[in-house]
Amino acid sequence: MGVAHSDLHNDLSSSSCFGDWNILKPGLGDLPEACVAIIVENLDPVEICRFSKLNRAFRGASWADCVWESKLPQNYRDVLEKILGGFPENLQKRHLYAFLSRINSFDDATKVRSSHTLSLSVSSFSRFICIDDRRYWSHIPTDESRFSSVAYLQQIWWFEVDGEIDFPFPVGTYSIFFRLQLGRSGKWFGRRVCNTEQVHGWDIKPVRFQLWTEDGQYSSSQCMLTERGNWIHYHAGDFVVRESNRSSTKIKFSMTQIDCTHTKGGLSLDSVVVYPSSCKDQLKRF
After folding, report:
1. Which residues form the F-box domain (predicted)?
2. CB–CB of 211/251 below 8 Å?
3. 221-241: b or e for each residue (b if 16 or more CB lie within 10 Å)?
4. How many whole angstroms separate alpha carbon 200 and alpha carbon 142?
5. Helical H runs in the chain?
6. Residues 6+ away with beta carbon under 8 Å from 190
7. Fewer CB within 10 Å: C terminus or N terminus of the chain?
């Protein structure tokens, strides 16, 4: 009888769907998929994709809508409707996250990326940005802009650029920047060059940046434009999006230098960008 009991124990030890694993010792493969989903819900998207390679339970949980729902912005439905013109009801939350993680355009001159945080870029030639007099501006093709072109100011007395954005920003604090360069970029025998011969007038009086929101927020700052040959993000101001019944937030912004005692020129304007304020320190000079 003792021999029979020993044989039975050996059979149980060797017969396992996990090869040499002991059937009496449960492993990760024995966890219910619902429990695995609770675990991976606390991971970031990259870790979720890595853990999906462990076994079937983790792979199945990595596709669960409840897992990716927490990774999407709170108002992702409004954002998708703005970009696509409607909400795609047939897509899983993982597909929605992947779509929002890419750079998307909801018109020819506005690009947005909105996975867990939102960033938005508006081209200088967008219908949302008004340049005071386009007779003094040129359309310059360049590979230094994600829009493949920038606006170049030759010379002007009254300098004013303003615009307006109406977008369903998620709740949070955001910063607006103008991406500018003193000089005109180009190529010379395949190497980047920047012509600064026409740059003048920006070191006499400061440029003023302003920001308004429809709920009464206002921000103003000014600075001298002195550095030549590099793309710089000039901070225009911050605004806060709070919980409200509004599905969209309207922001107005401007950049002016209206001292008509002198001319100014040689300025390249690429775009206006909106970033979460927590990420503004990550903006680098180009």
Report:
1. 31-71
2. yes
3. eeeebeeeeebbbebbbebeb
4. 22
5. 2-14, 33-40, 45-51, 56-61, 65-69, 76-84, 93-101
6. none
7. N
Domain ranges (residues) in the chain: 105-282
What does the buried/exposed string (b/e) look like for 6-34 if buried means 16 or more CB atoms within 10 Å of the residue's CB? eeeeeeeeeeeeeeeeeeeeeeeeebeee
SS3 label, residue 52: coil
CB atoms within 10 A of CB 108: 11
Helix (H) or strand (E) holding 174: strand 172-182
Residue 153: per-residue pLDDT: 92
pLDDT value of position 29: 65
Of 86, 108, 85, 112, the closest CA to residue 99 belongs to: 112
| pLDDT mean over 213-241 | 92
pLDDT, mean of residues 252-280:
90
Structure pTM? 0.78
Q: Give the angle subtended at the CA of 169 by the CAs of 233 and 175, to the nearest 5°.
A: 25
State whether CATH 2.60.120.260 applies to domain 105-282. yes
Q: How far apart are CA 272 and CA 131, in angstroms?
A: 13
**Residue indicated by tokens 């200088």:** 124
Non-local CB neighbours of 251 within 8 Å, separated by 6+ positions: 164, 165, 166, 176, 211, 212, 213, 214, 239, 274
| Position 6 pLDDT exceeds 60 | no
Neighbours of 177 (CB within 10 A): 21
Which tens digit of pLDDT belongs to each residue from 157-206?
999 999 998 888 888 899 999 999 999 999 898 899 999 999 999 999 99
Residue identified by tokens 């911050």 is 238
What pLDDT score does 256 carry? 93
Nearest CA to 107 out of 185, 165, 32, 49 is that of 165
Count the Cβ atoms, other than its own, within 10 Å of residue 135.
8
